[in-house]
Write a structure and sequence with these properties.
Number of helices: 20
Shape: globular
Distance between the termini: 37 Å
Subcellular location: Cytoplasm
Number of strands: 17
Structural class: alpha/beta
Strand order of the largest sheet: 8-9-7-6-10-17-16-11-12-15-13-14
Radius of gyration: 26 Å
Subunit structure: Homodimer.
Pfam families: PdxA, SurA_N
GO molecular function, one term: 4-hydroxythreonine-4-phosphate dehydrogenase activity
Keywords: Cobalt, Cytoplasm, Magnesium, Metal-binding, NAD, NADP, Oxidoreductase, Pyridoxine biosynthesis, Signal, Zinc
């Protein structure tokens, strides 16, 4: 029962008003589901088990109701709370179970699902909130007479119901426990019933200011796989609530038809709120210069790609969007299109936002430093870069004390601001083999990297290194590390992409807005064939929303 209490304590309060609409299919927004929930009270002798409620095509059994009531009673007893009398409590619990069943049915009809990446991350959060490692949490589950599979299924159900709320409720609540506690502290001493009421009220009045803002997806190179990845997620119902694509509507429509994807495109514009259902894709239109053919680059459309980015940045700067997620572009064709100074998304966004320095970081939860070898996703692997898109011949000259110091500081600051890590721990790679071998294999460590790190440590930053890159990415060195700082592109990203290619995302740190992207390129050889994997885009979308929410929460707590 301790495990049940941990899960119940961690779960967010769900309002009965959350279920307001049902998306029945592509292009259709239906009225609220009419629920025929009938309670059965038998005057006859109760059988071993019986049906207490019918919810559409599902049922709630007497044994399920009894189990849920027993869980709540034990939790209340452990916390010193009071509950209504037996019959009233059963009626309230049954009503909640009916609402839960409705939401799960809505999730099924809307093709919503929870992937293992999100589920594992939630398990880690629950374990950490109870000051446990994942191994300790698994042992506690077994000691409580449950299986890990049962706990995972409980959490999956809660997350599915939360997805339904996020897709259907106009204003969603994203409130930290600290936010709630601030409100409760202002209420003074109260009895347990009043405190419970005030906590629910606090969670519903502290509304995340970015909750209604769209999550913008720039569709990238029109000849690449970016447009179809967005269309695939829309057709599958895997786009997050209020996601909006930016691109050429006619191109997207033709690409969907060619791939046999049943997607209704909804033309909209900045400032309009559109909550799409499975099979729908809101689009902010930007016109191509010339028609696009999958797999065939056309420099004439270079300006189109940059125009989608310009619109996205302008919307974020005007407070009309929560974050930007970028599908891949092709650097070469943009340069050929007349933009000779273009070096990539990261540098373009730096200049567009008017900041001096940004950091490129990729993240995946397919970590190399898992607490348990057979537990996938038990820790995030985050790799940031001191240099990005530079020829290898130029890397050593670009690594200076000032640059290492600036990048390290930006990385630490955004681990706090966007990831909510209070005291980030960073491990730094050396540039040369064996981190220079005390100067025998290069002097960059002695002359540049070590002085920079010593200065940062003197300022209170928890930063290790420089460490040999060939051994840093091993469980012993990664244990307890929040991010790795690599000196150049392939030094860090080869390892990360091996660990989680297709399930990783690119994040630009140091911007005044949230930007994530996929971990792959335009894949021209796959474009138009419908075989590309949208997994990385899905990760990037989920991460962008979480980073935007964490960023807003950090700002509130400052």
């Amino acid at each position: 029962m301790k495990t049940r209490n941990m899960l119940l304590a961690h779960a967010k309060t769900i309002s009965a008003a959350s279920v307001i609409a049902l998306c029945m299919g592509a292009g259709t927004l239906a009225a609220p589901l009419v629920t025929q929930a009938q309670s059965f009270e038998s005057t006859q002798r109760q059988p071993i088990d019986s049906i207490v409620a019918v919810v559409n095509d599902g049922v709630i059994m007497r044994s399920e109701l009894n189990d849920r009531v027993a869980q709540i009673e034990q939790q209340a007893q452990a916390q010193g709370g009071t509950l209504p009398p037996g019959s009233a409590l059963q009626a309230q619990v049954l009503e909640r179970m009916i609402l839960d069943e409705i939401q799960l049915q809505l999730a099924n009809r809307s093709n919503l699902s929870i992937d293992d990446t999100e589920l594992n991350r939630q398990l880690r959060t629950i374990a950490e909130s109870n000051n446990m490692t994942l191994d300790q949490f698994a042992n506690a589950v077994e000691a409580d007479g449950m299986t890990l599979a049962e706990v995972r299924e409980d959490i999956r159900r809660e997350m599915l119901m939360r997805q339904v709320q996020q897709r259907q409720v106009g204003q969603r609540v994203s409130v930290s426990d600290r936010d709630v506690q601030r409100v409760l502290d202002q209420q003074g001493n109260q009895n347990s019933d009043q405190a419970f009421v005030e906590e629910i009220r606090a969670r519903h009045v502290l509304v995340d200011p970015i909750a209604d803002l769209p999550l913008l997806i720039t569709t990238g190179e029109p000849a690449g796989i970016g447009p179809e990845l967005v269309l695939m997620l829309a057709a599958q119902g895997h786009l997050p609530a209020q996601a909006v694509a930016i691109g050429d509507v006619d191109m997207l429509r033709k690409r969907a038809a060619a791939l046999g994807l049943d997607v209704a495109l909804l033309e909209t514009s900045p400032g309009q709120v559109v909550a799409a259902c499975a099979g729908q894709l809101p689009v902010w239109p930007v016109a191509l210069s010339e028609p696009a053919t999958p797999g065939v680059l056309n420099p004439a459309n270079a300006g189109y790609v940059l125009a989608t980015l310009e619109l996205a940045v302008a919307a974020c700067q005007a407070g009309q969007a929560a974050a930007i997620v970028t599908a891949p572009l092709h650097k070469g064709v943009i340069i050929e299109g007349g933009y000779s100074g273009f070096t990539g998304h990261t540098e373009w966004l730096r200049d567009a936002c008017g900041v001096d320095e940004v950091v490129m970081m990729l993240a995946t939860d397919a970590a190399l430093h898992a607490n348990a070898p057979d537990w996938q996703g038990s820790g995030d692997l985050r790799v940031a870069l001191v240099t990005t898109h530079l020829p290898l011949r130029q890397v050593a000259d670009a690594i200076t004390v000032a640059r290492v110091t600036r990048i390290s500081r930006l990385l630490a600051d955004d681990l706090v601001r966007q990831f909510g890590i209070a005291s980030p721990r960073i491990a730094v790679c050396g540039l040369n083999p064996h981190a220079g071998e005390d100067g025998h294999l290069g002097h960059e460590e002695l002359e540049t990297i070590i002085p920079a790190l010593e200065s940062l440590r003197a300022q209170g930053l928890d930063i290790q290194g420089p460490l040999p890159a060939d051994t840093l990415f091993t469980p012993r060195h990664l244990a307890g590390v929040d991010a790795v700082l690599a000196m150049y592109h392939d030094q860090g990203l080869a390892v990360l992409k091996y660990a989680g290619f297709g399930q990783a995302a690119n994040i630009t740190l140091g911007l005044p807005l949230v930007r994530t992207s996929v971990d792959h390129g335009t894949a021209l050889d796959l474009a138009g064939k419908g075989v590309a994997d949208p997994g990385s885009l899905r990760v990037a979308l989920s991460l962008a929303r979480r980073l935007a929410e964490q960023r807003a929460q950090t700002a509130r707590q400052a």
